[in-house]
Amino acid sequence: MKRSADVVIVGGGCMGTSVAYHLARRGMTDVVLLEREKMLGTGSTGRNAGGVRHQFSNDANIRLSIESIALLERFADEVGHPIDFHQDGYLFLLSSEASVETFRGNVALQRALGVDVRWLEGADAAALAPGLNADGILAATFCGRDGIADPNGVTMGFAKTAQALGVTIERDVEVVGITTKGGRVAAVETTRGTIETRTVVNAAGPYARSIGTMAGADVPVDPIRRHIFIAAKGPGQDAMNVPASHIMVIDFDTTFYFHREGAGLLFGMGERHETPTFDTTVQWDFLPQVIDVAVTRMPALADASISHAWAGLYEMSPDGNPILGPADGVDGLFLINGFSGHGFQHSPAAGRILADVITGRDPNFDLTPFAADRFVRRGAAAGERYVV
Ligand SMILES: Cc1cc2nc3c(=O)[nH]c(=O)nc-3n(C[C@H](O)[C@H](O)[C@H](O)COP(=O)(O)OP(=O)(O)OC[C@H]3O[C@@H](n4cnc5c(N)ncnc54)[C@H](O)[C@@H]3O)c2cc1C
Asked: Does the CA dihedral 49-322-40-313 come out positive or negative?
């Protein structure tokens, strides 16, 4: 393994590989990416629902989406890897007056930034997603350029092209310490020895806090378990009455969501009482709560069978916004953390922005809402409301 590098990236998920790719595109190739697992993309990245949307509640996240989705649209040509991107839209269903009010303001913001979002009545929503029961839906929003992409394709695309440009990727190596001298990063300690470096990127997803602690920086990211279930057609069912397209439907007030997956349906829902944990064991006793909501919104699920399920970790920041840029108080440590359950879709732009910051370019992006010091030096900001 190399004993020194200009930049060491900790973590081989969508964030670490995106930073590696964008650094390499800027000509910085003395870069080592370290992943403790034997494969890349097996953390949160490998467990996510693949959803990609413009519909967020604050300006900065919408801008991340606009840039990221544009790159995902060009991905095969520019990065050189297929990502199975279906832009069949995201449909948010709103069943409380409070949500309707929140979304009205946010649709205006999204439109002001150039995003083509439609405001719909419940009946229009049902027409977009066959099989959906729209009872109790007061309104809905739809953006046809939102969609579903393959997280593994994006991660491997970034990784392979970064490697082709000269970046070193080491798997099966764990970072166990970060040495600082005079308040600046000096070296990374790993299970295979020391790498001297003046620049470290913390791309450790739900484990970001522990990497920060190694360097003496507070990175307030908590791991929160989220489940995904896959429904297949049940015995005697010829076919499930589910949308033929890959439209993503989100019942905002319950956080239940689904999209087509093969011939079946992928669905999930947030657990309101989940506390921080690194345990990714599937809690089957949570399924009945999800099914209660699921069969109301998608009656076809009552006859389906659950073929499998998995759990992964959201990497939650205190306000639902990412932490992107230099760490607070440790020179040479850069953070790309806390994406709070929507990081896959923001990895293209976030990696580009951080690569610009590291190489001393103007990122052309106001990073104030994502700054690491916001939690200690400023009052509570708006944060992100569309955390599902
Ligand atoms: C169930 C679920 C559904 C989701 N759905 C969506 C969605 O639809 N759309 C969306 O945009 N996002 C979604 N997300 C969120 C998204 O998956 C994450 O925001 C994103 O994957 C974070 O990427 P990452 O690279 O930061 O983290 P990870 O993919 O977790 O990568 C971090 C890597 O760091 C490695 N690592 C950690 N510590 C060390 C160490 N000490 N040494 C070396 N390596 C280390 C880990 O092994 C891991 O591979 C979902 C998440 C979950 C759990």
From this structure: negative
**Residues above pLDDT 90, as percent of the chain:** 88
Q: Which residues pair with 232 in a beta bridge?
A: 305
Q: What angle do CA 267, 270, 275 make, to 5 degrees?
A: 140
Does pLDDT of 379 surpass 80?
Answer: no
Pocket of ligand 1 contains residue 12 by CB under 6 Å: yes
Tell me which of 1, 344, 345 to substitute to probe ligand 1's pocket, judged by most ligand atoms within 8 Å of the beta carbon: 344
> From the CB of 226, is ligand 1 less than 6 Å away?
yes
- pLDDT value of position 380: 55
Residue 322 structure tokens: 């990412």
pLDDT tens digits, 55-67 = 999 999 999 999 9
Residue with tokens 């009946």: 123
Do 315 and 38 touch, CB atoms closer than 8 A? no
User: For residues 157 and 81, is the Cβ–Cβ distance under 8 A?
Assistant: yes
The string of pLDDT tens digits covering residues 326-377 is 999 999 999 999 999 999 999 999 999 999 999 999 999 999 999 999 988 7
Measure the CA–CA gap between 325 and 335, rounded to whole angstroms: 5
CA angle (338, 343, 119) in 5-degree steps = 115
CA distances from 30 to 75, 125, 161 (A): 24, 50, 14
